[in-house]
Predict the structure.
Amino acid sequence: MTERAEKRIDRAAVRRRRDEVIQRLAEFGLARGPRRLSPNSRGEASHFRGLAAALASLGPVFSLFGIYLASRADLFKPKDCLELAAIPDQAEPSRGAAIHELFVRETGGSIDENYSIFEEDPFESRLLYQTHRARLKNATEVTVRIAHPELEERLPGDAELLPLLEGAFAAEVIADFDLERAITGFRRALAREMDFVHQVDAIDLLAGDARDFDMLAAPAVHRSLSSSRVLTAEWPSGPSVADVIAGVHKWEIRRAGGARTFDVDPNDLARRLCRVWLRQALLGAAFPVDPRPESVIVVSEKRIAFAAGSFASFSSGARTNLRNYLLAAASEEPDKACSYLLKEMEEGQSKAGQEDLERKFRQVAPFRDGGWGGNSGGDSLAEQLFVQWRITNASGCRPSFHLLSFYRGLFLIAAAAEQLAPRRDSLAAGLDDVRLMEVLGQFQEMAGVRGLGDGLDKYARMMVEMPGKLDEVLSLAAEGNARLKLRIVEAAGHKRQKNSLAAAASLLLLLAAVVLLSHHLAKQDGEGAWAEKIGAVLCVLIGTMALVAASRTR
């Protein structure tokens, strides 16, 4: 067959697929023109539920686009995003021959050459890939994730047909929605998610973070048996967050040393999930962009692992802006929150435009402007953020690509936490935990200044910052689940004076302890070292007790 004939056949196939998509959208009342039927003609309970059903029926590319939109809380209300999130992330397994051919093409060797056991039937088959259990030649148990070969064949043609969804996002249904920009964001995100090399690099970064953060687990990846379309790894075992949401809370984990049973508390898991994700986004080397519940593994009572999807990281400047944005939003400081969020937008705002946006931020009422729906009180930190994002989008601001990654990841984590612990503000509690971790880390860093030889400027800076850091630590620890804004109620004059003197004395004792310890470390084994060390420990104990006493009488 000639190349010209093949092109004619391809064009004919594209036309047939186009007609199929238009007809299917019309059946769901989502197409423009004469083929459009009445909305919800299939009796769907909501527009977004009908949209989800239509996208799921159109194959993997349209389904993936719907799942992507489900994480865009800057475009739709949370309850509408949850309707789209119901699109099944499932696909028919690819044929054995196609899988073997792809493996050879990607790794340069056959499956039989590299694994002593390879289960031909995958234990899961998602829209992007399927996963097989296998055993290496050295008897190591692994899982092998292989991209669907058929998806790459269908992706170019179906991606070109996504603009046919314009009728599904008509102005009378969804205002301020830019379908073209959404498609561009989807294609970019999908390219990253389909690249397993990107995932392997990110997993290495997570493994580095896991060494210093014992609430995070990461798999061991075998790079020699991984490529852009194949990923071989030793994944941690345990239930997924989706399993816990489904109501199964007791699990048995089998390891070489025997079986172990542990219970999962959904309320604790919700807070821990938010804490780990926020820690990675604000303090870590990489964070997951699409941490869907079925892809987050509960390794133990304290550790979780992100087992699939794409990852991202921020520059130090972007990380600082987002951290300050979250803290300002949690502290109910809308002007500051608006200012920091605008710094991460692609398009700047005029002074008048920023003032108008700040005014809208001050008027945000999540319970009125759209929250989770159902039994939600509509006043959680997450719902407040989602309303702010939609207001910013409606004002003409467009988030940068890395900010979109933050939006998507935070929404999916918050949505999972809401399902695990309804009516609890798990995101705010997780942010409290991360802020406390950050402050304690800063305090330890300040207390670790070694020797006078480092310069008196370090001690001067430490003396200025230490009172604030200590007060922040005590405040965060005492407030627990409270919002981060420090609220000090003024007491009577003599009580304030007594507390101030106690705090000042305790801070001087702590500072003396730091100086003594630093001087001792600089001297190494000089005369009187042990006496100074004992004195430093006593100063720390007395100073801490005085601070606690002062905080309790405040």
Q: What stands out?
A: The mean pLDDT is 80. The first strand starts at residue 115 and ends at 118. The domain at 92-147+195-235 is CATH 3.30.200.20 (Phosphorylase Kinase; domain 1).
